[in-house]
Structure formats: structure tokens, C-alpha cells
Amino acid sequence: MTIEVLRQPLGEGAVSIARASGTFTFPARFMLVCSTNPCPCGYRGDPLRECRCDATTVARYAAKLSGPLLDRLDLQIDVPRVPLDDLFRRTPAEPSSAVRARVEAARARQQERYAGTGVYANGQLPSALTAQHCRLDPEGAALVRTAAAAKRLSARGYDRILRVARTIADLAGADTIDASHVGEAIQYRSLERLSSKAA
After folding, report:
1. Same domain for 183 and 107
2. Is 121 within 8 Å of 185 (Cβ atoms)?
3. Which of 53, 132, 155, 191 could form an SS bridge with 76, CB 3.0 to 4.6 Å?
4. Into how many domains does the chain fold?
């Protein structure tokens, strides 16, 4: 699949092109936002419509997103059908200005934390700095170990959970990562659960 060629820039933030005259490397740090149906018919797990796909079809469909590619996606969210009543309900939501202030505060914390390292955001952390700045308490470490065994996480997937947990803590204004931050970060890898169930 064409999307597989994104593995290198997603992982390294750069693209290398080899030619007879030499190898050329270009910066390619970007944010990838993508979506997919849960199965070919689109109704797997839907409470109102019956899925027409058998297990083999679902497994083949899920396999289109390889494990190495999923490893490089920090946030994988399952978005269920929105109930009709919710579409008409006028419940006040958090204003965008409040969300923006929280994000700006989190980014300021990161820039201060990584001053002088060449890193300005959690997503850029190499493994050595991830281990240094994403230390977990015993409960959080136990959660990651359980998730690593259940999801068969690679070292890359493990590091990405730690970096997302660090970001969740920053957004909450917390200096340390606790089990709630780790648990939320683990929940943001739902496509891995889909692939493992399909297999």
C-alpha cells in the first residue's frame, strides 16, 4: 500500500532518497491524520446495524495497516456512532479558548523541560530522553507491562505510549506521570486491539 512508504518519515522525520550520484536526505516532519472503517461494510461493532463481514474478511481488511505502520501512529481512536439525541442536544462544550490555553501551557512546559537538547516537544523525544523524562511510578509501570504483554508492543510502541502519557500529564499541569495518564495513553491504541482481534 502507498501509505507504507510513510513509515520512514513518520519514524525519523526525514526522507532519504538513494540515487547513483548519492543519497539525499530531506526533512519531512509532519502530522498524519487518517481514518478507516472498522471493516469493509463499515458496521463492525455498530449497535444499530449488523456487520455483514466474516472473521476472515475483517482480518484481511485490518491487515492492510501493518504492525510497523501502526507502531508509528501515536493516537489510534475508535469513533463510534453518535446517538441521534446527542446531535440535537445543546449541551455547552468547553470553549476553544480554554483548550488553546491548556495546549499553550503544555507546550511551554515542554520547551522549558527540553531547553538546550534540540527537542521542543514530547513527540520528538529519542529513546534515551524518553527514558529520562517519562519515568513512571510503580502502578503506571505495571500498567505498561500488562499492555506490552497483551498488545505485544514493540520497543517503539512502548516509547510512544510513554511520550503520549507525558503529554497527557503536561496538559493536566502535572509534573509527574501517574497511572491515570498511562492508562489513558494505552487506550489511545485501539487499532492495535482491532488488528489483534481480527487476527
Report:
1. yes
2. no
3. 191
4. 2
Based on the fold, state whether residues 22 and 100 are members of the same structural domain.
no
CATH of the domain at 130: 1.10.8
pLDDT in tens, the chain (199 residues): 677 888 888 888 888 888 988 999 999 888 888 888 989 999 998 988 999 999 999 989 988 888 888 888 889 888 888 888 887 887 788 899 999 999 999 999 999 999 999 999 999 999 899 999 999 989 999 999 998 888 788 888 899 999 999 999 999 999 999 999 999 999 998 765 444 444 4
Residue ranges making up the domain that contains 100: 95-198
